[in-house]
Design brief:
Length: 294
């Protein structure tokens, strides 16, 4: 597949690496939106990104780069706005655990949509994030914030048998979801060991191609007892349950025409997400024409 001409994604920011994994004078080769790129840190500690050497685009061209949320972000175009703001990330007492990236063979937009879907917890994450007969998705609120153009879903509640490695039993967990960019989402989730506080999970998608992605997961947790490896294992366990389901969904590119919405599911967030993507005119990772199953 070739580099995209979709201006929405070209002018957006994407995670391409964990900041901590790129040491001084280190270099990594990766891919973004169909473009092979190299990302490196100079001896002064500044991160850079450019097209992969040898692809004829000239050695002088460098992309815009910034570091935030323990990640290196690259834009292949001219970003039209600042990166989203998560002030809680710097709250004292939080531990930042960068879980790394998992490859998923589907559209990044499907990965975000799946992250927003609470209805699958009892069936896909059985005995962890859900359990029959607690299958009800209670009503919650969804709105698009006019100041930041982000989707927020609030007052989401779900009964979970093992909401986190530190959870000692079942609890009704409260969630707030945010979609900050088409390929960047996060949630705030009740912290089992600190009532009233919320743990943070980011899911930041790096589309390699339209139907092939790396999903970067970052935790900002108040947990003081679990080792990093336990939290990373927890993420890998949960995400490992989602991955085969995501990869079996067809078509791989997400359909955005209004007729493809299924109004019977408890998916107010999915409907809001698809509408928001349509209004932005996102093309990348979107089904282009009528899909005819084989
Ligand atoms: Fe899931």
């Amino acid at each position: 597949m070739h580099i995209t001409s979709d201006p929405v994604v070209m002018n957006d920011w994407f995670v391409v690496a964990a900041a901590r994994s790129l040491k001084a004078e280190g270099l990594i080769h990766t891919r973004l939106l169909g473009q092979d790129i190299r990302v490196w840190r100079d001896s002064a500690g500044h991160a850079h990104a450019a097209p992969h050497a040898g692809d004829g685009q000239g050695a002088a061209a460098e992309y815009r780069v910034q570091e935030a949320y323990d990640s290196i972000w690259v834009s292949l175009g001219k970003p039209t706005r600042e990166l989203f703001d998560v002030p809680e990330f710097c709250q004292p007492g939080r531990r930042i655990i960068n879980c790394g990236a998992i490859g998923v063979h589907t559209s990044g937009l499907r990965i975000v949509e799946n992250f927003l879907d609470m209805a699958h917890f009892p069936f896909v994450h059985t005995d962890w994030l859900g359990q029959e007969p607690y299958t009800e998705v209670k009503d919650y609120k969804v709105d698009v914030r006019s100041d930041t153009d982000e989707i927020w879903a609030t007052e989401c509640r779900f009964w979970q048998p093992k909401a986190a490695p530190t959870a000692s039993g079942g609890m009704e967990v409260e969630y707030t979801y945010r979609v900050m960019q088409p390929f960047s989402t996060m949630l705030y989730k009740s912290c089992p060991t600190r009532p009233g506080e919320f743990d943070i999970i980011f899911l930041l998608i790096q589309p390699l191609d339209e139907d092939r992605c790396l999903a970067h997961a970052i935790f900002a947790y108040f947990d003081t007892t679990s080792a990093d490896a336990e939290l990373i294992s927890f993420m890998q366990l949960i995400f490992g349950q989602d991955k085969p389901i995501l990869e079996n969904q067809l078509p791989k590119l997400i359909p955005l025409d209004a007729r493809s919405e299924i109004p019977t599911r408890a998916d107010a967030m999915s409907i809001a997400y698809r509408r928001w993507l349509r209004e932005k005119g996102v093309q990348y990772g979107v089904q282009k024409e009528a899909y005819m199953p084989a």
